UniProtKB/TrEMBL annotation:
It holds the Pfam family STAS. This is STAS domain-containing protein. SUPFAM superfamilies: SpoIIaa-like (SSF52091). InterPro entries: STAS_dom, STAS_dom_sf, UCP029548_STAS-type. It comes from marine sediment metagenome. One of its GO terms (molecular function) is anti-sigma factor antagonist activity. Residues 4-139 form the STAS domain.
Length: 163
């Protein structure tokens, strides 16, 4: 059994993304591609992100979620919604400053449209490095704590020789 899955539905420019399992670095190119396709959709209004079945989420993924939240806010001037019932994940997203860019719900959505699975993209090491760097720069822009937390990682990635 696969340890991760991303599901998606869209209706009239409102996207629902559901993350299942361990959402880590290996999905960064898939997720970045998804973020780009959603934010380039002229009908895009907002997004609902469901983390109720997410076991683990890494900082790269959080940076990409922040990126889509900021795009949604720019597009519609409304905060997108993030659903998290796992206290550990809720603590992480709150500490990253997500309460400033999302409406955070701590109860599951009772009904969502039919979701289809997003195929996972294969990515080169360089593509992954670029996505990790970009995601962490987005996180650093959210608050001072994140800037301190990720400055060394970002600096190291910026000076790393392309593979």
């Amino acid at each position: 059994m696969v340890g991760y899955k991303i599901l998606q539905a869209e209706k009239q420019g409102i996207y629902v993304l559901k993350f299942i399992g361990e959402i880590r670095l290996n999905l960064c190119c898939t997720l970045d591609n998804l973020v780009d396709s959603i934010t380039l959709d002229p009908q895009f209004k907002t997004v609902v992100i469901d983390l109720t079945e997410t076991d683990i989420i890494d900082s790269t993924t959080l940076g990409l979620l922040a990126k889509i939240a900021m795009a949604a806010q720019k597009q519609s001037h409304f905060l997108p919604t993030l659903i998290s019932t796992n206290p550990d994940i809720t603590r992480i997203i709150t500490s990253m400053g997500f309460n400033k860019i999302f409406i955070i719900l701590r109860e599951p959505a009772s009904r969502i449209e039919e979701l289809e699975e997003i195929p996972v993209l294969r990515a080169s090491e360089q593509d992954v490095r670029d996505k990790v760097l970009d995601a962490h720069k987005v996180l650093m822009g959210l608050n001072k704590q994140n800037r301190e937390e990720f400055k060394n990682l970002v600096r190291a990635l910026e000076f790393e020789e392309p593979g």
